[in-house]
């Protein structure tokens, strides 16, 4: 099944490669980059993928380079001459000041190397809704904009590496004469392995472990998230959105929110997800029960599940990212984004979040990353 024929999303128009197009996907093995690389190859683009390990997508030319060394980028990318650059990678640091230095510097150095080649026509940058919520150090605090978030909301009065990345993109685009787009995604769901921010295998591993130890599948987050509405971003939707913006003149030099188009409530979705995973659902306590705490010391249980079911990844840390799902599910503020700007410019993508989540569980099972449903008999 291709991204274009998925039953959980609206029909996707083709985005064929413009003449002479050569895409560079920065972060080609991540949840966002791998979905984009697959779509580019399917649409006939010449595609290069910059990543530490080789991309799993057939047809992608691997470029191994140190994103955080301008000298290494110059040596590896000096003659690549891409026409379209898609920046989907970042590196989490201990402080926001370090996030700014490292991740803002990554965008600056990458475009400082590629810009003088004068081949780049468009550069796309993937960020997220921390643009409106603030950095990890002050997440969801202070005077936040109203929901649904609008792209023209003023920046928060706080350090934020997304702002630094945008400013580097804007400066390079003006200096080297290419167009740009920014794609502010919410929690991204999709298929990738070894990714640091991946809710589906995280919740799948959580369900497998509590099922194997006779515990309920308790919602680990806040009552605010349980009772409220929220949106998510499917990785294929995000890929299509980036290609649309890169090939649509009306979308040039614009920042966009990108989510699935629907909203869900965890209190309705959690029992559906639990039933699909084969475990008994339970709602939240008065206080969150973070996965990072619940799953502390769960590695031996996972090792047993790996042996029993012939799973391919024995390292639980490469399957589940407890901290990231805790940050999403434990929020005490409503989070959802408006997509009017994209709709008015012609983007029509739409994904059923519930169906996408359940279908992704099946895909991770088929790949033997997650075990089959737990037997409750």
From TrEMBL:
<dbReference type="Pfam" id="PF22917">
    <property type="entry name" value="PRISE"/>
</dbReference>
<feature type="region of interest" description="Disordered">
    <location>
        <begin position="1"/>
        <end position="20"/>
    </location>
</feature>
<feature type="domain" description="PRISE-like Rossmann-fold">
    <location>
        <begin position="82"/>
        <end position="371"/>
    </location>
</feature>
<protein>
    <submittedName>
        <fullName>SDR family oxidoreductase</fullName>
        <ecNumber>1.1.1.-</ecNumber>
    </submittedName>
</protein>
<keyword id="KW-0560">Oxidoreductase</keyword>
<dbReference type="InterPro" id="IPR036291">
    <property type="entry name" value="NAD(P)-bd_dom_sf"/>
</dbReference>
<dbReference type="GO" id="GO:0016491">
    <property type="term" value="F:oxidoreductase activity"/>
</dbReference>
<dbReference type="InterPro" id="IPR055222">
    <property type="entry name" value="PRISE-like_Rossmann-fold"/>
</dbReference>
<feature type="compositionally biased region" description="Pro residues">
    <location>
        <begin position="10"/>
        <end position="19"/>
    </location>
</feature>
């Amino acid at each position: 099944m291709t991204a274009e024929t998925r039953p959980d999303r609206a029909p996707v128009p083709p985005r064929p490669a413009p003449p002479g197009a050569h895409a560079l996907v920065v972060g080609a093995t991540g949840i966002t980059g791998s979905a984009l690389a697959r779509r580019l190859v399917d649409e006939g683009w010449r595609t290069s993928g910059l990543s530490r390990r080789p991309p799993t997508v057939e047809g992608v030319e691997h470029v191994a380079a140190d994103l955080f060394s301008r000298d290494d980028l110059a040596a590896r990318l000096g003659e690549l001459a891409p026409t379209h650059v898609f920046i989907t990678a970042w590196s989490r640091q201990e402080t926001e000041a370090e996030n700014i230095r490292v991740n803002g510097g990554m965008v600056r150095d990458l475009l400082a190397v590629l810009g003088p080649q004068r081949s780049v026509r468009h550069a796309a940058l993937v960020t997220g809704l921390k643009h409106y919520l603030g950095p990890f150090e002050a997440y969801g605090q202070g005077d936040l904009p109203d929901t649904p978030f609008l792209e023209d909301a003023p920046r928060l009065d706080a350090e934020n590496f997304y702002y630094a990345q945008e400013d580097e993109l804007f400066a390079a685009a003006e200096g080297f004469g290419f167009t740009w787009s920014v794609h502010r995604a919410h929690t991204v769901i999709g298929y990738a392995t070894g990714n640091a921010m991946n809710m589906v295998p995280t919740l799948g591993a959580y369900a497998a472990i509590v099922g194997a130890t006779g515990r309920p599948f308790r919602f680990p987050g806040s009552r605010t998230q349980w009772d409220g509405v929220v949106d998510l971003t499917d990785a294929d939707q995000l890929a299509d959105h980036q290609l649309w913006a890169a090939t649509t003149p009306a979308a040039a030099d614009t920042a966009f929110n990108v989510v699935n188009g629907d909203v869900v409530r965890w209190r309705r979705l959690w029992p559906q997800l639990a039933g699909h995973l084969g475990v008994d659902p339970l709602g939240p306590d008065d206080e969150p029960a973070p996965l990072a705490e619940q799953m502390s010391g769960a590695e031996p249980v996972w090792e047993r599940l790996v042996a029993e079911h012939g799973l391919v990844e024995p390292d639980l840390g490469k399957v589940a990212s407890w901290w990231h799902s805790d940050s999403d599910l434990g929020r005490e503020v409503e989070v959802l984004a408006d997509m009017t700007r994209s709709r008015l410019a012609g983007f029509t993508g739409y994904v059923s979040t519930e169906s996408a989540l359940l279908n992704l569980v099946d895909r991770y099972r088929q790949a033997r990353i997650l075990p089959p449903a737990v037997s409750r008999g």
